[in-house]
Specification:
2 copies of one chain form a homodimer. Chain A folds into 2 domains: 132 residues, 60s Ribosomal Protein L30, Chain: A (2-Layer Sandwich); 158 residues, Phosphoribosyl-aminoimidazole Synthetase, Chain A, domain 2. Chain A has 315 residues and is α+β, with helices and mostly antiparallel strands. Chain A contains 9 helices and 13 strands. In chain A, the strands form 2 sheets. The first copy, chain A, has a 7-stranded mixed β-sheet with strand order 8-10-7-11-9-12-13. Chain A is globular, with a radius of gyration of 19 Å. Chains A and B meet through helix 1, strand 3, strand 4, helix 3 and strand 5 of A and helix 1, strand 3, strand 4, helix 3 and strand 5 of B.
Chain lengths: 315, 315
């Protein structure tokens, strides 16, 4: 889809559909909508050959991947899941066994959070797909718009792994060389617990679904601040280093553009050590606007090199 | 999809995913899930050539039809809409003008209820489709399971019109002869106001989406009662009579099997005249179980002749 783009459609909708209801604190524009009663709701859709490839996904992995990615939107707002509504878009060839595998995947990722399946729809579709709406709750919601000058930029865990995993599977590279990356692409872990750990300290948050540069740009834009990513402080996982070396790609460029890691990217004045939560400080927030990269003592403005879900993975 | 059927998948899911969260009053099994705080949430998906045909639908009508059908699930629970989450599954050929028309359709059906658009997702899909999650609220929710012996069975308005409209458009019959039916298929009105009118009196409610026989059967099953439809009291609209006469179909059989009228089917001890609400009494609830038809003084058990969304409209 060269024209219109996802962003142009979102801009169109935001302009023409202003929030009117007092029950809504925040509507279109963040990872999820936030209600005055503390409910947080988000919806996502996934299609075969657009978001996942059945050449290397099992039905179990599809279930896990799609619901994991959906629950990540709740983590980004520091909300705990209550339940999910799942619409299955099924082609006529699907079997009951495959539906069973799909649901085992849903359960595997949902059960640790006691997330119920509360409803859904089942329709025949020309293409296999899944639409998921997740409902969560939070007493203190983190928005994209809370970043303040003087804070640091943090991320939970390494980035770029999911995209390495996707490419390794897509290109048929040896799976044994990239176990962490492959697991990350197939079975993304929504950072629900981590969000509960950081929410006391974080002032803004987003999940890394569109790539480090695009998601950091969102934080800067929505918070009306300038954010600088420190090139030297972005951690590079050995599998990302390995893949980039093989493909002669600069690892930092790769990470700036890689999506679907579903790690939390947040700003905070400081974050203490949190048990079981890996956190890297990779930049800082200052007055101004825009996205910058600092390397060898020099800062330069960079553009979001974004991971466009509309055009990635497509046939 | 000959195997598995929609019902077999729902049965599978209901059995394996029991409601666990105390925040949920009712999960899978009614028109919408009900939360303890009064929120009511439902999700539906629609695809071209399965739920609507672009040979006679405009994008405006698609927007109206899909959101209207979704809001009907809130009406069935006597909930008032707060907002909708809309996922667009777009093929690469769609234009910004078509997206604009689609959203004008969403607005037209949503605005009378001050229903906000609170979020969504935009993805590339091999087939044009829409997934919608609606969020509403009610202080007194109507369930399918509330029917009690001694009550009457009521419906708001004539039935069968939407299916006549669909067939007339599909078969290319003269549109001028079926204006009410065509409008009913393209632009279904969710009976939100009507639900507010009847909720003081009704004890159970469902919207007629799967056909009179199937939806009455659902009320009987979920309420563990016997419901008898009085053949003589089912009103027949002149356009339904006209179409059935032309096709040599018994109008009552047609109405029992026709879906997507999105009228409210409910049980109550009595219903007073309500300003602006058309209501027909078409049967009664007694002790026992199952669905019966009464004609010329004789009652016979009938099967739900169901409108299967999985197999209708398909190519």
């Amino acid at each position: 889809m060269s024209n219109p783009t996802e962003q142009s459609i979102i801009d169109y909708i935001r302009k023409r559909f202003p929030k009117r209801r007092k029950e809504l604190v925040e509507g279109i524009g963040d990872d999820a909508a936030v209600f005055r009663n503390g409910f947080v709701i988000s919806t996502d859709s996934f299609f075969e050959n657009v978001h996942f490839a059945m050449s290397y996904f099992t039905y179990y992995a599809v279930g896990y991947h799609c619901l994991g990615a959906s629950l990540s939107d709740l983590a980004a707002m520091a909300a705990s899941p209550i339940c999910a509504f799942i619409s299955l878009h099924l082609t006529k060839s699907i079997s009951m066994k495959e539906i069973d595998q799909l649901h085992k995947g849903f359960r595997k990722v949902a059960d640790p959070f006691r997330c119920d399946l509360a409803g859904g729809d089942i329709v025949t579709s020309p293409a296999f797909g899944i639409s998921i709406t997740v409902v969560g709750r939070s007493r203190r919601v983190l928005f994209r718009s809370g970043a303040r000058p003087g804070s640091g930029l943090f991320v939970t865990n390494f980035l770029g792994l999911a995209e390495v995993g996707r490419r390794v599977l897509h290109e048929g590279l040896p799976r044994k060389d990239y176990p962490v990356s492959i697991a990350k692409h197939l079975f993304p872990a929504p950072r629900i617990q981590e969000a509960q750990g950081i929410k006391r300290y974080a002032e803004s948050c987003i999940d890394v679904s569109d790539g480090l540069s695009t998601d950091t740009f969102h934080l800067a834009e929505e918070s009306r601040v300038r954010i600088t990513i420190d090139a030297e402080h972005v951690p590079i996982h050995s599998e990302v280093g390995e893949y980039c070396s093989k493909k002669k790609i600069e690892p930092l460029d790769f990470i700036l553009a890689s999506g679907e890691d579903f790690e939390l990217l947040f700003t905070a004045k400081h974050v203490p050590r949190l048990a079981g939560v890996k956190i890297f400080r990779i930049g800082q927030v200052t007055k101004g606007s825009g996205l910058f990269l600092s390397a060898r003592g020099k800062e330069k403005r960079i553009e979001p090199t974004g991971y466009e879900h509309l055009t990635q993975h497509g046939n």
